[in-house]
Amino acid sequence: MGSSRIIHKINAGVVLVFLTLVSFIVLYPLAYVVSSAFTPGNSIADMPIIPFTGGVTTDNFTNLFNNTDYPTWFRNTFQVALATSFGTLIVASLGAYTFSRFRFAFKKTFMMSLLVLQVFPLTTGLIAIFVILFRFGLLDNLWGLVLIYLAANTPFNTWLMKSYLDTIPKSMDEAARIDGASHFRTFFTIIMPMAKPIMIFLLITSFTGPWMDFIIPTMVLRSTPNHTLAMGLFSFITERRNDFTSFAAGSILIAIPFVIFFVATQKILITSLGAGAVKE
Amino acid sequence: MTGVTRNKTLLLSLLFMGLGHIILFKQFAKGILFALCHIAFFIFVPTIIRNFYGLYTLGHPQPELHILDRDNSLFLLMDGMLTIAFLALFLGVYVLSVRSALKLQKEYENTGRLPTAKNFFSELATGSFPVIALLPTVLLILFFVVVPLIFAASVAFTNYSAPHNIPPNNVVDWVGFDNFRFMFGGNAMWAGALGRVIAWTLAWAALATFTCYVGGFIMAIVLTNAKMKIIPFFRAILILPYAVPGVISLMVWSNMLNGAFGVINRSLIQLGIISTGIPWLTDVWLARFMTVAINLWVGFPYFMLLITGTMTAISEDVFEAARIDGATLFQITKKITLPLVLYQTAPLIIMSFNHNINNFGAIFFLTGGGPTMPDSTTTFAGGTEIMISWIYKLTVDMQQFHYAAVLAVMIFVALAPFAVFNFMRTKSFKEGEL
User: Fold this and answer.
1) Under CATH, what is the fold of the domain B182-430?
2) Looking at chain B, which residue has its C-alpha nearest residue A230?
3) Which pLDDT does position A150 carry in this prediction?
């Protein structure tokens, strides 16, 4: 018994050392970027090796808000992400409700094409996105960007939502229909409240996608006042302009809400991800 | 109304859309809407013919005209695609109208009387919900997914590229399979670059998926089995790379690994471990290694969370029974946890592989596709280039759209098995009800 307790203690020690080491590797770049945001100077060569030892200043933040388009980028990105998120919710849930509750011509073909299309990433057809928005006069327009994201989000999210709605008993909406409610009314007052968990999941995941996308905005948005955060942050650290501290300040302002959100909801995340894997 | 036969219905509905509804079944609302579709089609016939002609020729060179008055091949190509999309929509409506008429006829045959006549609006309200609810989906998918994908693929069969074939200055022509021939061996330098990029894309996707899965699995096992009070604290730290937007993490790492000024090399020099900087991102093999390593940093928490979730779903009784039989933690992990978790998460491993094949950010923001290779000045493909980042460079920087489109077609072909897999694994398909 005594020797097994010693082994247990050694094991615990090994685990502790291992976790500390991994945590250090995880934390070091994050500490570095936070410290850079508060360090005087611009280039990465000026940054101290040990974080937070190069002096403290808030100049980078004031510079960000006074001398760059950061606030505009932030507003643009927020607008695009929010519109995409709610647009996806509306389009996907209407489609999912129809697929889940109605029988109609071409239903099978339709659902199969959605499933197949979700595999092909829109980014491979970069030039096509450019030309089609050009043709519809939506180039360099934030709403054009939203339309592209909406279309790209729809196939997967419709399927996701449909499998959830399938689990809600049909007797619920049939009862409402018998009471004389229209399909739209049934959908908004009966189905949507019951599908709240999946709707929240869908809202969040379709918000984070456009939030930090780079490749499609570069193709669609031309003028600087229309740029998004990912483009703006990237422009700080190109070869021509090495402004790492502004980049760091801008980055942590974006990352902090996400970090708080993820750490606070990690329990829910574990269960929802686990459930997603177990379910089909 | 005695003679409403199947043949008569079919003939009238095929002759002119909605005719059957109006004449035979007195369903005026539906009938008129269908008829309007058909009239619209007739009005657009000249446009349709013109667009098909444009699609066929892609315009003629008109150097004598002002630049904005010349034929724009891109618009002609796009308009051709859009015309095809509209025709497909029209055909779909046509089929719907015929089917709807036949359904009414069958009802008549069974009951012996026509469906009760309704007023215009209530007739539209019933049965129109699926159409209205699916309309946004259909239009979005058709015009912003299907048309762009087909357009991108068709560019592979044109010579759309800088410097001689950029509209509106010049026109673009169909060139058949020339671009494919050029890439697959017609030009040794491009063929070499293509081979290298394909091989690295596949190797990268496999390695990136494997390392993140294994890393996530190990962390999940350690965190679930270590009985220490401090574990939630570690868990909160380890989740951070998942919470920080990947673009930011990758750009930060890229700066930290900078050969001359990066904090990592400067630290190692100060500590006396090395005397000159390590070329993290400028040596080909080291750069490839680093893309996988940094991707592990970014990607392991996802699988850690996922596997933790899956493990909590496994019944505790199984572990309890194994422990009573005297199994060690290693044995339990190998014989029970791993197989069960693998089985549950297999679809997600495949989805993750699929995602990594097109993981633009993981490459572009860390190495930018670099370091430079002997052929990079011509082909723009660097040592860690994957297909999607190469497409980006060929499109945005080099304006070699025709070669970018060849790569896009290759990605479509490579991803087709995933599409089939996706389809086969759905529950509805397995149960045969779809």
Assistant:
1) MetI-like fold (1.10.3720)
2) B247
3) 94
